[in-house]
Amino acid sequence: MKLEAHAERLLLAAPFAISRGRKTEAAVVVVTLDDGRHRGRGECVPYARYGETVEGVLEAITRIGHELAADLAPHDLLGRLPPGAARNALDCALWDLRAKQAGRRVHELLGLPAPAPVTTAVTISLDTPERMGEAARAAAMRPLLKVKLGTADDRERIAAVRAAAPEARLIVDANEGWHSGNLTAHIEACERAGVELIEQPLPADDDEALCDVYTQVALCADESVHGLASLDRLEGKYSAINVKLDKTGGLTEALALVEAAQARGLAIFVGCMVASSLAIAPALLLAHAARWVDLDGPLWLEADRAEGLVYDAESRVHPASPALWG
Predict the structure, then answer these.
(1) pLDDT at site 69
(2) Active site includes 2?
(3) CATH superfamily of 118-317
(4) Is 23 annotated in the active site?
(5) Is the N or the C terminus of the chain less surrounded, counting Cβ atoms within 10 Å?
């Protein structure tokens, strides 16, 4: 088995801002596995919030390269690498390779429903209330908008987006940017705007205050949940979880996490980082289990991969072709 891994910097069509910062490019790592006849690919996004760097992810992938035998299965990676970006790229590349070796699709190998077109959220990047209102007005025909928040004056932002897109369903993401002092006011503003879900309102290591919150809005763990080991600490705080392949370390653990979370009564939100269609395609296999889907990462790129996913005018993302992945 030959392994090749390299970094790419994908320019964004517009700046992307959340409470932790602003970026104009997406740094990704692409892995290719070659058995001499078939090639499998995977893509990941190293994330500084979790202590990851491009260099560190490349090193971790290269270090395990000598262990990759021709008969290595994705489950074999679970004990070799922790959840995170490096394992994600390898896991997805292995599934792609196994599908090509078998002449079948990944969903068939896993016994999953065939992926179908699914409505994805379209993200409104963090900005002034006025500019976020303008962005929401331009996207008002979209059925589902995801609003990036995480500042002290988010009530004005929520109101501006709702006024500009009165018919759209809304979900919001605070990216750990609120605190116990302003939590209630922000939740009340979300309730008035008819928001369906609030993603990670408090820092992951300071979310105990959510145990005392009562709201009809779904509270969704993002930074507070990674793989299966994260589930126990969510009880009493959240009613949903955001499953991202870069957090779980690939499709293999993501599927196990979805099953375990549903057994606990947690709703599923499938999310992504800003990345190319190669990173998003495997996540589409989770969409059948999700109440909310946020897989618009490639829409932020100046240019996606040539064989990239198709996003239609109704915000539906269509399943990947075998030339892309799986």
Answers:
(1) 63
(2) no
(3) Enolase-like C-terminal domain (3.20.20.120)
(4) no
(5) N
Write phi, then psi, for 46 (nearest 5 degrees): -60, 135
Closest CA to 30 of 93, 99, 94, 100: 93
Looking at residue 72, what is its pLDDT? 73
Please pick, among 100, 146, 244, 247, the residue that the annotation labels catalytic.
244
Q: What is the CA radius of gyration of the chain?
A: 19
Q: What is the mean pLDDT of residues 130-154?
A: 96
The dihedrals phi and psi of 6, each to the nearest 5 degrees, come to -150, 160
pLDDT bin (cut points 50, 70, 90) of residue 43 is: very high
Distance CA 63, CA 69 (A): 14
Residue 66 has pLDDT above 90, yes or no: no
As to burial, measured by CB atoms within 10 angstroms (0-12 exposed, 13-18 middle, 19+ buried), residue 325 is buried
Q: Per the residue annotation, which of 100, 146, 148, 247 is the catalytic one?
A: 148
| Fold of the 2-103 domain | Enolase-like; domain 1 (3.30.390)
